[in-house]
Write a structure and sequence with these properties.
By secondary structure, the chain is of the alpha+beta class. It has twelve helices and four strands. The radius of gyration is 24 Å and the shape is elongated.
């Protein structure tokens, strides 16, 4: 897959994720209308008579008597606002959540980072990203933004302290590859929308729980079953979103490693950096798990490498470091 195919694929994935997010919000809104507000859309007199004949008592009065799908409309508006907010403020929120601050040219370590970033910006032909440093002793890094013209590369203080110049070049080239391939747009959108889905699901679950009693008292079996299915969707949605983010991340890491080796002409620089990053057993505490898929290595540290097998791979944000190093060494051997 060449760079243009990668960019096109990432653009399609971004639109797919946004569409799925909007659909999920509509589903939440529709379920809220039907199961929480009891909204009855369209003629309901005949339905009321049939309900009374079948259940032996009148159907409970809805909280929303207008027939207008209030929940669906609010959910659609909220979804649109969150998509807009994610696209305009997503990178800033990601940087703020990790405590990142602009690199200081007067700091020798920061200055080396800025120099290497400028070298990779020239080598890649991309605009110069903004350089940020995360106050954390564990070595890690990530890139964020929505386009090469609006991109950021953030590294931890631990990374600057532990890597030599060649290794730092490999890491920065890896992050520049994510920018060039438009991985940053896709992964930043996933991170922002995953957090939004978690918040909305939690709110809807609380409201659904408040309504469950009335559904049992007089909602009928069909309504109760529908409510249960709706609640199951709300519970599973954050998990499915995270699994999707992890799968996308695993796929992109190998491509970024290969692109970094191409930019630096030195696959062993990144391989050596990954060795050092893997050897750091402590987690990167400043980086939240919600943006783990954006990092060069899982911020959970050694805990992420402990498991093996299908389920361990399924819940991993990155391919095994050993396999990534092996692939880079193979590139060096071919060279």
């Amino acid at each position: 897959m060449n760079i243009y195919e990668q960019q096109s694929d990432n653009k399609r994935m971004t639109w797919l994720i946004v569409s799925a997010f909007v659909f999920f919000f509509l589903l939440i809104g529709f379920g809220f209308d039907v199961f929480v507000l009891g909204t009855r859309m369209g003629p309901s007199a005949q339905a009321d008579l049939e309900y009374a004949a079948y259940n032996g008592h009148s159907r409970p009065a809805p909280l929303n008597r207008t027939g207008f799908p209030i929940g669906t409309a609010v959910a659609l508006i909220a979804g649109a606002v969150m998509v807009f907010n994610s696209s305009s403020n997503g990178p800033r929120m990601v940087l703020q959540s990790s405590g990142a601050f602009p690199a200081d040219p007067n700091n020798p370590k920061h200055r080396q980072f800025l120099n290497v970033l400028e070298e990779m910006h020239i080598a890649s032909g991309l605009p110069m990203p903004k350089a940020f440093v995360i106050p954390d002793p564990d070595p890690n890094a990530f890139a964020t933004g929505f386009s090469p013209d609006n991109s950021y590369v953030a590294v931890t203080e631990g990374l600057l302290d532990s890597l030599n110049r060649e290794e730092l070049q490999g890491v920065v080239a890896h992050e520049m590859s994510h920018i060039r391939n438009l991985d940053i747009r896709l992964m930043t959108m996933v991170a922002a929308l995953a957090g939004a889905i978690l918040l909305i699901s939690d709110f809807a679950l609380r409201m659904g729980g408040m309504r469950r009693g009335s559904s049992r008292d007089g909602g009928g079996k069909g309504n109760a079953l529908g409510l249960i299915l709706w609640l199951v969707v709300l519970i599973l949605a954050p998990l499915i979103t995270n699994l999707m983010a992890m799968a996308i991340s695993r796929r992109r890491e190998y491509l970024a490693d290969a692109s970094a080796a191409e930019l630096t002409r030195n696959p062993m620089g990144l391989a050596s950096a990954l060795e050092k990053i893997r050897s750091a057993s402590s987690p990167t505490r400043s980086i939240r798990q919600g943006v783990a898929h954006m990092c060069i290595e899982d911020p959970r540290g050694a805990a992420a490498e402990d498991g093996s097998g299908f389920f361990a791979d399924l819940f991993s944000t990155h391919p095994p470091v050993a396999k990534r190093i092996e692939a880079l060494r193979a590139m060096a051997y071919i060279k």
